[in-house]
Each structure stands twice: as C-alpha cells, then as structure tokens.
C-alpha cells in the first residue's frame, strides 16, 4: 500500500467496497428500486433541461477545442430522378467528453502516489495504475462506456439562493452552507439524500456561461473538501454543479488541486456532472425530481457530453 499523505483520499482507499475489479463505482447503488422510487416523484410530467447547448463561443478550458463544420451544402445528393433527395452531415472536432455540459468517467482523473521506497506512479479509481489502462486510443478500463444509465431521485441544493446572487469565484461551499440550503428549502437534515440519489449544487457560475465565456474557466465558486466529505458519506451516485469542476477554483490549499475530484471519483467512485444549467430548475421551485441521463457509450472515453434533464 502506498504511503498516502493526501487528505482527499485518506488511508486504504482501494480496493473499492465493490471489489478490486469493479469499474462501475457508485453506479452499483442504482437498480430497478431507484427507478421505481424516482418515478413516484413525477407530478406534472414537465421536463427541464439541465445542460447548455454546444456551440462556437461556449467556454472552453485552455487547450480544448470545439468546432462544427458542414462538409458540403448539401453534403450529398441530389439522388433520385423524381425525389432529388439531398442530405446534410456535420463534422465535429472536440475533446468531446470534456467540453460544455459533461459527465466525468471514473478514469478521467487520478493522482500520483508516492511509495515508501520513493517510487511514484499515477493511480485512478480502485487503485488502477494509469500506465496499465492508458492507450493513445482510449482507456482500457474505467471509460465512460462502463457508466450506467441514470434514472434516479435528484436533489437540488441552491447555494446561490442563500446569497441572492451568484457566488464569487473562489468561494468555498462548506457543509454549513449545504445545511443552510436544506433548512431554507424545508428539507429534513436526516434522510434528505439516500444512497444512489443525485445531488446538484447551484453556485450561480452557470449564469456566466455565455456572458463571460472567455473568462469562465479562470475561477469558480464550488465545493471545498469538507463539503465533498459531507456528501460522500451519504453515498450519492452523482454530484453535479453549474461550475466547471464541482471543486472551488482556485483551490483553498494550493497543495491540494481538485481535492473534491479525487475524493469523490478516486475514493468513492462517484460520478461528477459539470457545466450544468440549473437556473430553470431553481426557478421551478422543485428541489426533488427525477434526474435522468444516458452517457454516450464511447469506449475508452474520459467523459460524455449530452443533455441531462429533470422530470417534475
């Protein structure tokens, strides 16, 4: 076992509670019982998108790309003497799993671990060595194709509403803030989140998604490590936020970069949903809902784009 000094991971963080070969992580908490339980929350049948559109001009982390091109106008045709059928295709070039609204795969993020002998190596969820699973064409294990389809109970914690305005960049959300949300929203502090539920954090950073696209990745309000520990103890399957990292950026401790990522993904196998659009959900006044998302099954990919949505 490595000589771990990282408080985001603690001691004996692998093998996973689901076994040394597990690749599903907290997805193991899902099942028909969660689908049936969540379906009882549907009252009006209204659906609310929890994602932003993908388009030129959206925020991009430095070094990442999104471009859509139409290869011909039309791309093909006309075909058929009478129908004269034409069609359009598109070509997208992007870090498709890591731009805009996206979910992180369990193989997306890891950490370099130092052993007592002085040897270092990068590990990811369940103690997998990155050198064993990385290839130029994708991950051999822990790719997004191993993630489940999500249809489960979701809970919104509207931290922005505590302050009546979007939180400033670098604002650390603590367990006290999350408890204050529960009180404000009239939710019982005991039993408000069950294993396999989803919790979404509204910071207000999503309101800047297009209006401040050029600087959106320069910093963000988000969870501190103590808040991530508070949530992980309740065993959610997904933690999502309307910022780009779930973590507060910059990190409170410069020696701990993205500690919530490490704690939630590496230690607990909890999926992160980033860059979410939570304003319409907050405006609905519903803090409990069905969260639904089906990641694209791109084998070996580090994440998935797509449109998560709430059913009310």
From TrEMBL:
Signal peptide: none annotated. InterPro entries: KFase/CYL, KFase_sf. SUPFAM superfamilies: Putative cyclase. One of its GO terms (biological process) is L-tryptophan catabolic process to kynurenine. GO terms for molecular function: arylformamidase activity. It holds the Pfam family Cyclase. This is Cyclase family protein. It comes from Rhizobium tropici. The lineage of its organism: Bacteria, Pseudomonadati, Pseudomonadota, Alphaproteobacteria, Hyphomicrobiales.
């Amino acid at each position: 076992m490595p000589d771990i000094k990282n408080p985001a991971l603690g001691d004996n963080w692998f093998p996973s509670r689901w076994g040394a070969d597990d690749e599903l992580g907290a997805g193991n908490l899902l099942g028909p019982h969660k689908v049936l339980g969540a379906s009882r929350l549907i009252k009006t049948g209204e659906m609310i998108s929890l994602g932003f559109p993908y388009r030129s001009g959206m925020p991009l982390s430095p070094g990442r790309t999104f471009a859509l091109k139409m290869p011909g106008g039309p791309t093909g045709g006309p075909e058929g003497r009478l129908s004269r059928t034409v069609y359009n295709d598109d070509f997208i070039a992007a870090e498709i799993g890591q731009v805009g609204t996206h979910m992180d795969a369990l193989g997306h993020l890891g950490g370099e671990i130092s052993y007592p002998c002085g040897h270092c190596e990068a590990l990811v969820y369940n103690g997998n060595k990155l050198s064993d699973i990385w290839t130029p064409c994708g991950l051999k294990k822990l790719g997004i194709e191993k993630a489940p389809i999500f249809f489960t109970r979701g809970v919104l914690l509207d931290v922005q509403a505590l302050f009546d305005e979007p939180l400033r960049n670098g604002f650390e959300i603590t367990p006290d803030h999350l408890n204050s949300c529960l009180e404000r929203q009239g939710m019982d502090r005991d039993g408000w989140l069950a294993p396999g539920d989803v919790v979404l954090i509204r910071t207000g950073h999503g309101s800047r998604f297009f209006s401040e696209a050029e600087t959106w990745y320069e910093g963000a309000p988000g969870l501190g490590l103590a808040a991530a520990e508070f949530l992980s103890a309740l065993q959610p399957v997904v933690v999502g936020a309307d910022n780009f990292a779930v973590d507060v950026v910059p990190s409170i401790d410069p020696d701990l970069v993205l500690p919530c990522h490490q704690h939630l993904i590496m230690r607990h196998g909890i999926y992160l949903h980033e860059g979410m659009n939570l304003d319409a959900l907050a405006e609905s006044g519903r803090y409990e809902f069905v969260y639904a998302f089906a990641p694209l099954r791109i084998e070996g990919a580090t994440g998935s784009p797509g449109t998560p949505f709430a059913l009310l």
